[in-house]
Amino acid sequence: MHRSQSDLSGVDLNLLVALDALLEELSVSAAARRLHLTESAMSRTLGRIRRTVDDPVLVRAGHSMVPTPRALAMRAEVHDLVLRAQAVFAPAQPSDPTTLTRTFTILSSDLLITAIGVDLLDRLGTEAPGVRLRFLPEPDLRSDPLRDGTADLEIGEIDSTAPEILTEAVGEERAIAVVRAGHPLTTGPVTLARLAAARHVTASRRGRLSGPMDEMLAAHGLRREVAAAVPTHAAALVLVANSDLVSIAPIRLGRAQLDALGLVPLDLDLRLPPLLLSQAWHPRHDADGQHRWLRGRVRDCLRQALAGGSAAAGPDVVTRPVAG
């Protein structure tokens, strides 16, 4: 009985591997050694193959075995199928970045983009000139671009609510208070009370008017006045540079903007929780060689920014005695 081509439910596809070995070796014992089977097990497998294809496949000719016309006709196709199956299940090989032509979409804050963007683009321009990056703002809690596939990677403080999202911690950053040069807080003793009495601006894409600094001040019985919340760090720092407002910024990743705007960090030993910087992606990209390559470059750039932007190498810090 001939089996319908569409009926594979009863076929053991492992028989393809055995058939490939038999047609190459033209010997049951040699095929058995090749597949690390006993000769009797290979003989039983040959019997199953014969019943499946309804053909003897190999027949005795003196002291050797010869393939039937049907076996000769399908030998090349069987071998090709085995090679393609092996390729499907083989571990993903690293991609050659010089041949990539792809656009990656990355979610990130504006401050983080400016901190690593030049380094990342320089690396990509050298290693993978065909790769382009599309940076988008960090999402709000009502959307999840990593899950729906509209973004490939998110970097920064990850707060995705999708349980399957994969994250990799890259490093920690310290937040400090910053003011303009000549701000009243840059003269005289800097105290927590004076800091709380100043007017503040927060950077929050969700418009939050409070955060870890408020919790820290509350522990000392103090409360600050927040004049405004703006969606980006860039907007907050520009406001600080042109007013007596105070804001919070990461001292290493924000170094370039602090320098460019002439802002002064105030080291008050605020003991704010460290900022955990991570990258996150959906499991669909986990084994993708091209995506792995991108994650490696982003990881390198983040670590370089954190290592090369140490507080000692950053802008001068105005250090004053801390008082409650």
Molecular structure report:
The chain has 324 residues and is of the alpha/beta class. 39% of the residues lie in helices and 21% in strands. The chain has 11 helices and 13 strands. The protein has helices at 14-25, 28-34, 39-53, 69-89, 110-127, 145-148, 192-197, 212-219, 233-241, 255-261, 289-308, and strands spanning 58-61, 64-67, 102-107, 131-136, 153-156, 166-173, 175-180, 199-203, 225-230, 247-250, 263-267, 275-281, 318-319. The chain has a 5-stranded mixed sheet with strand order 4-3-5-12-6, with helices on one face. Strands 10-7-11-13 form a 4-stranded mixed sheet, covered by helices on one side. Strands 1-2 form a two-stranded antiparallel ribbon. α5 (110-127) links the parallel β3 (102-107) and β4 (131-136). The protein is rod-shaped and about 105 Å long. It starts with 13 loop residues before the first helix and ends in a 5-residue tail after the last strand. 28% of the residues are buried. Residues 309-324 have low confidence and may be disordered.
